[in-house]
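ugh finaly. both done.
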Amino acid sequence: MGDEFRCVDLFCGAGGFSLGFQSAGFDVVASVDRNEAALETYSHNFDNVATFETDIRNFTLNMFEEHSGYDARDIDVVIGGPPCKGFSTAGRMDPNDPRNELVVEYAKTVAELDPEVVVLENVTGFLNMHGGQYHEELRETLSEIGYTVQQPEVLTAADYGVPQLRERVIIVATRGGRVEVASPTHRPREGQEPLRGGEDLDPYVTVEDAVGDLSFLRYGQEATQYKLRPLTDYQREMRDGADELYNHKAPNHGKTVRERYDQFDYGQEMSELDEQYQTKKHSMKRWHPEEPAPTVTTLPEDFVHYDRLRIPTVREVARIQSFPDWFEFKGPRTTGGQRRRNSVPQYTQVGNAVPPKFAEAIADRVADHLTAQRIIPGT
């Protein structure tokens, strides 16, 4: 598609959604996020994109036009993943969380930009939060300004070549016609039933498929160069275009922590360990090398590496999210305690992102839709 279609990314974070649409040929012309560290990462990895460090409630059409050099008539697609903590089943699902209002603010911004297609990504809990109120408000707001809102689709990232069993809801709205659901490219391994598609799909990409070439790093070590050759197509794809190894630093865990990590079997959770090794961190789980990873979170200590007595590095988690190795994350690597409320360190940037390969699969179908709409006589 080249730069035939133009896109604006709201709540862009580090840029996973943008990267997927860019890979599908879209020209991403502007991105909005309120967090300085995330936008530092975004600006470092994307050229010629107007970035706006602001709350979406303060983002206006005049700001967009003055800073980007485009006007609303130039925009074909608006994408975005409003902060999902209030909707997540892993959180408190607080209906009074002010972040939940950002979904409606997203729709109001869409009204100003007036694109042909709108794509929203969020956690599956969004559909049922507060009795479905937020989903209904989004649907009504978009419908009132002339969009046809398609039925939400719950998709699994692993079906599209991402080594992660991450489920997300995708909501698409158009000025006319329908954007088709992206067809899966991958399926569970032998002995497992496919969620979608047929027998001719590639098997799921596993954790070891994804990060096996990075597993040489021990606790307390850091590397800026590869030490192992890529052994899978996925590893080769992720390394393409990378001159050095970024964000590959492992914490220096103490002896007690390493002994605890050593008790985990593949796929085992903290609550399954002998009581003497358990902590309050019940969500911690060890990666299984022969399966896709569970959903990546914003907390690095949620997972133990499958082959090393340490948590994964930022680079390894980025691989699980399908960020290529040339994509460098900026800002602090991690923060702890109360600082996590206001800080967006590298691990959080990765965990909050839309997996780029997943986004690209969606973007391909959006491009097909826009192309078809443009060649219909009389349109």
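ok and the 2nd:
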Amino acid sequence: MTITVTSQDNTATGDEESEVIRLTADVVASTPNGLVLLIERGWPPHEGAWALPGGHVDLGEPSREAAARELLEETGVRVDPADLRQIGVWDAPGRDPRGRYVTVAYAVTVPADTIAQAGDDARTARWWPLTDLPPLAFDHADIIAAALTN
């Protein structure tokens, strides 16, 4: 979903500035035995880097449903959107080199034997020990840290 925000920069001259904001949803899927599901990104930015499953919220779609859909599309892991627990919103300007992206992040615990298989935009889907994560794209390390404290 894309939102265009217009703000009046100078009320005396009527100058306005617009900013396009894109809404995404990310998922921290973890197991009771301390693994977290990551994808290897198959496209820029951060092509080849590890990241949380997630992506754009479609028009008219709640972010919770988008999170469940993206998890399924990118990893083959199916969860009920009702089982996703919202952990926060990440909206810092500059968090994504493509422009202004705001993400709603969710967490879900799945069984330890859950099989993940890369699909959609992911090169690879892999379970990683929370104690030995690779460098992550975007601010996904912060999102995982928040999921562990909530």
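summary for the 2nd one i guess: The helical segments are 63-75, 140-149.
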